[in-house]
Amino acid sequence: MTRPTDAVVVGGGIVGLATAWRLQARGLSVTVCDREPGTGATHAAAGMLAPVAEARWGDERLLPLALESLRVWPDFAADLRDASGLDLDLHADGILIAGRDADDRRILEDLLVLHARHDLAAAALSARDARSLEPALSPALRGGVLARSDMAVDPRRVVRALLASLDTAGVRVVRAHVASVTRTGGVARGVVLEDGTRLDSGAVVLAAGIATPSVGGLPEGAVPPVRPVKGQILRLRGEPLLTRPVQGFVHGSPVYLVPRTDGELVIGATQEEMGVDSRVTARAVYELLRDAIALVPDVGELELCETTVGFRPGTPDNLPYIGPTEIEGLTVATGHHRNGILLAPVTAAIVVAVLTGERMPPELLPYSPTWPVRRAPVVVPT
Amino acid sequence: MTRPTDAVVVGGGIVGLATAWRLQARGLSVTVCDREPGTGATHAAAGMLAPVAEARWGDERLLPLALESLRVWPDFAADLRDASGLDLDLHADGILIAGRDADDRRILEDLLVLHARHDLAAAALSARDARSLEPALSPALRGGVLARSDMAVDPRRVVRALLASLDTAGVRVVRAHVASVTRTGGVARGVVLEDGTRLDSGAVVLAAGIATPSVGGLPEGAVPPVRPVKGQILRLRGEPLLTRPVQGFVHGSPVYLVPRTDGELVIGATQEEMGVDSRVTARAVYELLRDAIALVPDVGELELCETTVGFRPGTPDNLPYIGPTEIEGLTVATGHHRNGILLAPVTAAIVVAVLTGERMPPELLPYSPTWPVRRAPVVVPT
Questions:
Q1: How far apart are CA B373 and CA B64, in angstroms?
Q2: CA distance B111 to B126
Q3: List of domains in chain B
Q4: Does residue A304 carry a pLDDT above 60?
Q5: What is the DSSP letter of B216?
Q6: How far is the C-alpha of B340 from the C-alpha of B143, rounded, in Å?
Q7: What value does the mean pLDDT of chain A take?
Q8: Alpha-carbon distance A30 to A170, whole Å?
Q9: Residue B301: closest C-alpha in chain A
């Protein structure tokens, strides 16, 4: 038994850590529980903050949340840098969308229509202009789009900075798995760890990504459905080739290349693989390298340093669940799928609002699991 | 100072270890020196024992040595298994040579002429027959050859077995780098280690692979020229796909796939890269996976477990140097290039003959660095 805190955050990925940090900054006492903070989907993520470059027809309902989080990212990053003394490698020169062949160029044209409809900051580029921005792009490129406002950050640096800031602020990070949520009179009032230790709290925030459904102590349906979506991602190193991230389409397949200041290049990611097979497959590595080399030929000369599998928390309607649940005292912040890095700041802000009783901007309410249309999840065609 | 031994072997790759083991078996006291035994070219090697599948026009001078070593491998393996109690994963079902397109089939036809000229055990296979031997081969295959007598072994297991056997036999393995050879009146009489320790011996055997030229204490030209030849190799794991190794040609590029009994599949190897860049490049991984998947499509579903760079000791005329040198007491066993695993038993036998004053079969004499035509090395066209 330890002293009760105002909130226990279950999950130490970027969402859980950012939420704990922001709750603490608002004066709440917080405990975070994760066996290995920052080693889940966050560890695999490339860190594109790309509501424009990753906007897709059919997924527009995510846009208000994504754009709001992009808007607050620079301040979030500046605060975090000040609190931790660590650099996050934030890139704010936009993201270049590139099309390899004529069909890929049509994909870009189609995206430009979507961008225009939502008034997103995107400009068509000739292949020549794209190559003058990024000379390492293949001469065979057929067209480009510059998503000027999109950014990128190094998620592993963000985790280190959040852990350092939490440490400085005296927030306890318990390196243990949460077995269950405890309830008193139906109200969530803490958690029990895998070793039986009980942590009492005024509120519980479930931010456990794909592990969210495995947290016990809750009635069926109390926690929204989250499924693991496998992604495979490569890390290469060598001569810097790009000054900004490139989101490419190569013969219809998406591939992205995210450069870091230190010479790392992150290449991802395989799409929408179901299941919990955590193996890095030969085919995924082959196809990622093939498409990356087709866009940026000199990628072939880089060193392949790391292959990673991540499991992103997907939801039936492709929207995250952020907000209160039917259970008093229980708030969720999960289901961020491919957008956990982008959405961490706005997610933390929403959870702070929920726990402190603040009024939320109405456009952020529809991401709550209690929002009426989300109780019977709709399967959106992919 | 320690007691002098009959021989110091410089280098603990498969060649040095096998040589030390065979010398000890003949009653000589032996010391082996290597900072990290078995971690050089041997660690990267796939372990094909393939004088037939790897026979090439222009390289026929290696054939007598290669065939003799293949002939003695089964006994060598049996002895080593008995001495160590360890299994070497020796495969003796032949190697299948596969051609992907019509041009690749012409490469096979050309090789069959070479095989016939040297009376090598090789049989043409229709694509259908090749696939009935190895059903995982692509239906798009255009032809095959079965090299019935070729074999394969796991080099890492061989190293473990050799180290265990040396240990049992009381052979000292000094985990240190040799700085120089010591000479008394011009005669090699031991070595000095990197820390200054002196090891005296009746004879010195240089088996240091690519490190051979860096051993000091010898006049220029005393040690034959050896240069590092980079190779990149992949290790995958999963459902067993092949019952025997496949040496393939895919649109003119060679690629081999060597299955192990435990489910590992070794894929290699990039050819003839010069220099000492030890990075695993994206292009090498991409091309190896591309060609392996073109031959055996289900390779795509395997897990990519390891990428390795090895530096093989190449020589100007593509033949190893095995035998006495101009310096009395100094024997070399190096320059085995892509054939170190295959040639280890015959190399050990030659060094034993040299050190014990045995008569060597005349067909094995031409690999000595003192053989007349080798003093002015000929560059063989590749």
A1: 17
A2: 15
A3: 7-46+156-226+316-375 (3.50.50.60), 95-148+227-313 (3.30.9.10)
A4: yes
A5: B
A6: 29
A7: 94
A8: 9
A9: A281
- pLDDT mean across residues, chain B: 94
Q: Which residues are within 8 A (CB) of B351 and not within 5 positions of it... i.e. 6 or more apart?
A: B19, B22, B23, B205, B322, B331, B333
Structure token pair of residue A263: 């010479």
Contact A250, A294 (CB under 8 A): yes
| Partners of residue A283 in chain B, C-beta under 8 Å | 289, 293, 300-301
* Contacting A residues, span 307-326, partner chain B, CB-CB under 8 Å: 307
pLDDT digits (tens, 9 = 90+) for A143-168: 999 999 999 999 999 999 999 999 99
Is the overall model pTM greater than 0.80, yes or no? yes
Contact status, residue A96 vs residue A130, Cβ threshold 8 Å: yes
Cβ pair B285:A293 closer than 8 A: no
Q: Chain B partners of A302 at a C-beta cutoff of 8 Å? A: 281-282
User: What token pair was written down for A102?
Assistant: 């004529």
pLDDT digits (tens, 9 = 90+) for B306-333: 999 999 999 999 999 999 999 999 999 9
**Residue B41 scores a pLDDT above 70:** yes
Q: What is the Cα–Cα distance from B292 to B236, expressed in whole angstroms? A: 11
B17-28 per-position pLDDT tens digit? 999 999 999 999
Structure tokens that stand for B268 in this block: 């290699």
Of A290, A299, A304, the CB nearest to B280: A304
